[in-house]
Amino acid sequence: MRDLPVRMARWSAGHPWRAIAGWFLFVVVCLGVGISVGGHPATTEDFRIGEAGRAEAMAAEGGLQQKPVEQILITAKPGTGRLDTAAANAAARDAAGRMARLPEVESVSRPIGSADGTAVRVEVTMRGAELDGDKHVATLVAATARVQAAHPGLRVEETGGPSVSKGVDDLRDRDLSRTEMIALPVTLVTLLVVFGSVSLAVVPMLLALSSIAAAVGLSMLASHVFPDAGVGTNVILLIGMAVGVDYTLFYLKREREERARSGGRLPAAAVVELAAATSGRAVVVSGLAVAVSSATLYLADDVIFSSIATGAIVVTVVAVLSSLTVLPALLAKLGQWAENRRERRIRRGRPVRGTRSESGGRLTRALLRPTGRHPGVTLAVGVLAMLALAAPLLGMKLTDMGRETHPRSIPAMRGYDRLNAAFPDLKAMHQVVVKADPSRRTQVAGALRDLSRRAKHDPRMSGTSELRTSPDGRISLLELPVPHYVSDSAAVASLKTVRHDYVPATVGKLPGAKVAVTGDVARYADYPEHQKQKLPLIIASLLLVTFAMTVWAFRSVVLGVVGVLLNLLSAGAALGLLVLTFQGTWAEGLLGFTSTGTIGSRVPLFLFVILFGLSMDYQVFVISRIREARLAGASTRTAVLDGIGRSAGVVTSAAFVMVTVFASFIPLHIIEMKQMGFALAVAVLLDAFVIRVVILPALMLLLGERTWWPSRPGRTAASAPEPAKVG
Fold first, then answer.
1. Which secondary-structure segment (H or E) carries 280?
2. Using H for helix, E for strand and C for coil, what is the string for 192-256?
3. For residue 31, pLDDT beyond 90
4. Which member of 14, 46, 647, 661 has the greatest number of CB atoms within 10 A?
């Protein structure tokens, strides 16, 4: 009773109003400082990966880096027949004139007609870095709207990287707002059912939301070390609601159980201390596990995963801090009010309702009955079922989600389709970048023209290539149009041909020249390849962290191995179901998506890391109850069945909250976020209801006393340390 969680709970319960005021002051300060300092968004340089990244760095060195480009497309209105070329050219000149006067615009092309005469376009190059285009594109879109109003007989629209990016961001923001409108009420209703009290149901919600607010402010500060790729806030919302509610739920349920066990004889502060000594410690271990597991994402050497790791770590640490500081104060005040109500009812001669003890529900006892009688059979059936669910994982295809996968509810994407239909050469491009001594400028140009001639006869590439050279003659860049979307096999095959055949046969022969290939297709292809190279290191680190945390928490090597295997089993089953659902077409209408036949390259790694961390919540809580019973003198068999039964209610409630939060991401329009929400929701369901209630107890029953090796808790039940002392 002298470790850190108990000491903090003792002070908080003894000074409740100070603790409550201090917490909300902390939240306000974090948010205020974060807003005043501001965040540091990732730049174009932060996203460079692989050979494509090296080529982009060389191009930027010569001032030839990619610029944000918008296309003003003019076509005939539906039902009006063929395009009036004269009217379209007039509208194009009007658009060009308006765009040229905008301070956000660097240059404007002349009107360009399509080969089939169905469209005219104007290419608008914006000032600034490629990633900054979406911040200033609204002015261009407004100008395009004025051109449309001035030429009502034509269809005038704008598309391009910046407008598509802004449309995706706006759609994601609207989707997330709807997600919050769904997740918050469902979570509140769940907590009302669990506790049967409005005050107790509001506490987890209040602490989760305040933890999210504080984490948002702290993440702005952290972004100056780990730049924010635009996903940090989303991760904070996703993880913050899940762990914030879960940690509070673990603590609250244990406080109620201890109050029921004491029969009202212990004061509220003492009950809170007992809860801190058990569930409070479990929360600390769980939080550390989530934070350390999330930190393995830094090994990906990718700004997006660094942002995910930072958001997950910050919000988890803040959620743990709230459970150690302000939660005991709130519980002490609520407990005191409950005691006062009880005394008033006694004085008035009214019956006093007892607090229900947590001893496991009928469903849990029903599930545990066959496990207790036939653990071997139960284990075999459970493992085989999970392996069957994981089987589709063998056919998983990872790709980066190209621009063409974005929803057509975005206006710029509808224009994107019409632009590519009229000008197929704009679908993608290869960029061959060469860095050489300025004295070799002529040789480099000749070799690149040779490469261009070879590509011109390649049916997978077409159009007019463009050669540009930096003012100092050191950097040269050749653009090769590709009339295929980046995800098409022809585009990917053409990239391999350029890199492995055309480049070695031309500029690759120049002595002392550095050559790299980038472009839309290269970016698309290099990112998943980069993830595949990093995946073994991250998975190995994750397994090692999970093993070490479990051994540290329970002083058992066997439980460390068990934790790793069970987490692999649940993650594999969740990924298998993900592949089965999203690589096929059978669930398109059910879940509202168009299958690409692939899985987003970020999804498996995100799922593995986050799931391994969150699984420790249930692992720590369940095994803590089992070890607690074993330390009290019960046999391992009795401890397992009793611990699972007592913890099943809170695990089920916590899992339902997590599943609600994660499943609320499934209706999102962005397919990668939809896949992440689905995978996490399925993984939590399997982990809570199959792994922790069926497979784990069956395995521990079969292992018996070997479960605790090398420690022997039964021999020193009176003096053995509780799991994972902190402080």
1. none
2. HHHHCCHHHHHHHHHHHHHHHHHHHHHHHHHCCCCCECCCHHHHHHHHHHHHHHHHHHHHHHHHH
3. yes
4. 661
Q: Which amino acid is at 95?
A: A
Q: How far apart are CA 312 and CA 238, in angstroms?
A: 9
DSSP string, 515-566: EEEEEHHHHHHHHHHHHHHHHHHHHHHHHHHHHHHHHHHHSBHHHHHHHHHH
pTM, two decimal places: 0.84
Please tell me the distance from the alpha carbon of residue 88 to that of residue 76, in angstroms, as a whole number: 8
d(CA 460, CA 455) in angstroms, rounded, equals: 8
Residue 481: which of 421, 403, 426, 420 has the closest Cα?
426
Q: What is the pLDDT of residues 594-643, one digit of tens each?
A: 888 888 888 888 888 888 887 877 788 888 888 888 888 888 888 888 88
Paired residues of 468 in beta bridges: 477
Helix (H, G, I), strand (E, B), or coil: what is residue 457? coil
Handedness of CA 268, 269, 270, 272 (dihedral sign): positive
Q: Do domains 1-38+197-352 and 67-163 have the same CATH topology?
A: no
Q: Please give the single-letter amino acid code of residue 334.
A: L
Q: Does 1.20.1640.10 match the CATH number of domain 1-38+197-352? A: yes
Query: Which homologous superfamily is 67-163 in?
Result: Multidrug efflux transporter AcrB pore domain (3.30.70.1430)
* Percent helix, percent strand, percent coil in the chain, to nearest 5: 70, 10, 20
Fold classification of 411-525 (topology level)? Alpha-Beta Plaits (3.30.70)
Closest CA to 339 of 268, 275, 276: 268
Predicted local distance difference test score (pLDDT) of residue 642: 84
Strand ranges, E, within 501-617: 514-519, 599-600
Tell the residue number behind the tokens 């050489």, with chain if given.
436
Joined tokens for residue 109: 């092309």
Domain ranges of the chain: 1-38+197-352, 67-163, 359-395+555-727, 411-525
User: At residue 484, what is the residue type?
Assistant: H
CA–CA dist 713, 631 (Å, integer): 6
Query: In this structure, which CATH number among 2.30.29, 1.20.1640, 1.10.1610, 3.30.479 belongs to the domain 359-395+555-727?
Result: 1.20.1640
pLDDT digits (tens, 9 = 90+) for 198-233: 777 888 888 999 999 999 999 999 999 999 988 888
Tell me how far apart the alpha carbons of residues 246 and 618 are, in angstroms, rounded to a whole number.
10
